[in-house]
Amino acid sequence: MTEFSTAGDAPAGKSVSQTADASGPAGDAGGATGPGRAERPARVAIMRMAEAGDAVMGRLIARYGPVGAMEQARRGVLDPGFARDEKDRAEASRRHLDLGRHAAAWAARYTDPSDDLAQGMRRGARLVVPGDVEWPTQLDDLGDARPFGLWVDGRANLRFSCLRSVSVVGARAATAYGTTVAAEFAMSLGGRGWTVISGGAYGIDGAAHRGALASGTPTVVVLACGTDVCYPSAHEDLFRAVRRQGVVISEWPPGAHPTRLRFLIRNRVIAALSRGTVVVQAAARSGALNTATHAWGLNRQLMAVPGPITTEVSTGCHVLIRQGKAVCVTSAEEIIELVGSIGDDLAPEQRGPVRPRDGLNDETRRVLEAIPARGATGPAAIAVAAGVDIGTALACLGALAAAGFVENVDRGWRLRPAARQ
Amino acid sequence: MTEFSTAGDAPAGKSVSQTADASGPAGDAGGATGPGRAERPARVAIMRMAEAGDAVMGRLIARYGPVGAMEQARRGVLDPGFARDEKDRAEASRRHLDLGRHAAAWAARYTDPSDDLAQGMRRGARLVVPGDVEWPTQLDDLGDARPFGLWVDGRANLRFSCLRSVSVVGARAATAYGTTVAAEFAMSLGGRGWTVISGGAYGIDGAAHRGALASGTPTVVVLACGTDVCYPSAHEDLFRAVRRQGVVISEWPPGAHPTRLRFLIRNRVIAALSRGTVVVQAAARSGALNTATHAWGLNRQLMAVPGPITTEVSTGCHVLIRQGKAVCVTSAEEIIELVGSIGDDLAPEQRGPVRPRDGLNDETRRVLEAIPARGATGPAAIAVAAGVDIGTALACLGALAAAGFVENVDRGWRLRPAARQ
């Protein structure tokens, strides 16, 4: 929390999730007004008991709600109807499933969620769960493998940041060519109001975040360990900078350490969060190709950067292009043309300096007009100037960000260059 | 002719075209037995009068035969029926055509073909025209723009060499990466019995020919000037080496100099001769993209090599890949998979060391068995050993080369490694 205390306004994301938490109904089912009070600790307990991406747990939650699922998992005893359906499902797909052992493992890992909640808060992270205003609903495309919740650490609002976002992924063992391209793409994407999403590894990941940071726009680091675990440790300064300007997120509880499997599980979130994934450099068996496979499976736009055929680290990119899975991209403009909204980002000649404000409703236009022509302002000040409550202001700002009028930066919200009329 | 006099056997191509010339009928129409006697000087005169690729002349020849077309062009007076059809055609395509002036220009450029014939022979070149055994019939795909004839200088047989061939083209201002890739591709293609076709320019063209020469297989240089004109002059040694192992060919008469337009006209022949064109490096407006457009228009396989997006000289390749016109290729194996015969070249596991000889007819099998297991032999010696005449031997050798059993090299014909049983 130390970093937040220096900010003039409370960070947007923080306010949103706290508001949702406080205003939600006491019931277990998440709704339009946010998940219930009991749901949050239940999800925290589940994040400790079940491995991220556990589809059996995903279905247990879908059927009994987070609190019901947590209770069954904690006891290690599942509802017979659910158990029967899971066995049928496993048999139909000829998959081995020892459900009793699976549930027993959940039960064995139960810890009081208040420990994780306290530790997460102490380390400066906030919990974002399905139903929260800050929840990125595109993760729902992951179906049964949707994250149970996310620990989010940083000033940016996760949901707003990801509305216009591109995942930039690639090899740890990138060449200077690869890291240069990743950084330049990220900087150009940022300059055009697009958020970069990537892992926290050396090579392409780090270069992409550094490029995004240089452009002054949010960047999202998706970790395969707790948000309080710095892996790799040499990226401590990088992650600190990301927390100031973007967010560091994780499906794993505070203190969790990364494993080889967790990197692969994590990759589905990188693919699902954005509108498209760009593979900058990847050898034939690179983990980045795993992210590419997720993006492809989720019907997200898949793109790859060509490189010299004489370096192995571009082989994976060329295979994706050759197979017709990835589109060959050579600039940020080409990426935006592929992931942008039709008519808005399609062709350079259609991107004029003036954006039509006519399509906005009264409230949203008032919020837009409350933002000064230069500099950034906090959401509370914007709400006062626009004469709306903070929740309405944040909702309008989110819509305006998605439409490309405003962006969420270090000290609040500001107009994007194109919206300054 | 100096180079041929040192060879033990008469060069295959030379023998073939001389045979065809001597055995052909005296009439004007080319047939299965080769073009008529009067046709060759007529085509030589036309090659002097009309610019290569002149489709009006192409249609005049198609209608009146080479001798009839030559006579009309020489007088500068065209048959009224033909003139009317050409005017209708021009009007239908809203194209300006001053046919009188066009024909007058032909007439003005007439010279006695015996001069060119004598000069071509003196410089060591042979004339190959449609109907000759050495004529590459795939050039017929060029329709009205088919070359009127070709001057061919070198030991390889043009038709046989081009049966399994790939055009490797690209920028003059290639980088070290581009020339390395071009040379390596050409060497691998040559090692697998594929002929390389390219222009004679600096950069990719020269590197491709050098790679092919290093593999010991024929390479075809398609010039935009007379075969006796060395352009660029620094390629004198390269062209000499090509004449020893492959062929240097041109649509233009001896002594003709290259122009910017001629390079573009020439490119259609590079595209039409081979089964596919690989663009190794090409800037956005490179002439290599002109060749690519021809290959695309002729339904030949179009391929492009990716490269660093940070060098402009790969931009054209990336555009072709991005547009879906060219397939991204990164190795000679991938090229052969795209241009090779189904089942023969498709997948690495299908390429075994033993080739079935069962499909060959008696004569062809006798010719194949007459070739020693090691080293190269001249066609005359092969004919004697197989008990067939030289014409039959050459026809069988061509078929065997096309099927990948044998290859035409410096000192005659030899078994390809895979055919050595």
TrEMBL record, chains A, B:
A Gene Ontology biological process term: DNA-mediated transformation
Signal sequence, start to end: none
The protein's name in its UniProt record: DNA-protecting protein DprA
InterPro entries noted in UniProt: DprA, DrpA_SLOG
Species whose genome carries this gene: Microbispora catharanthi
NCBIfam families: dprA (TIGR00732)
Family the entry assigns: Belongs to the DprA/Smf family.
Gene name linked to the record: dprA
Pfam families assigned: DNA_processg_A
Chain residue ranges for the region called Disordered: 1-38
Domain Smf/DprA SLOG residues, every copy: 127-339
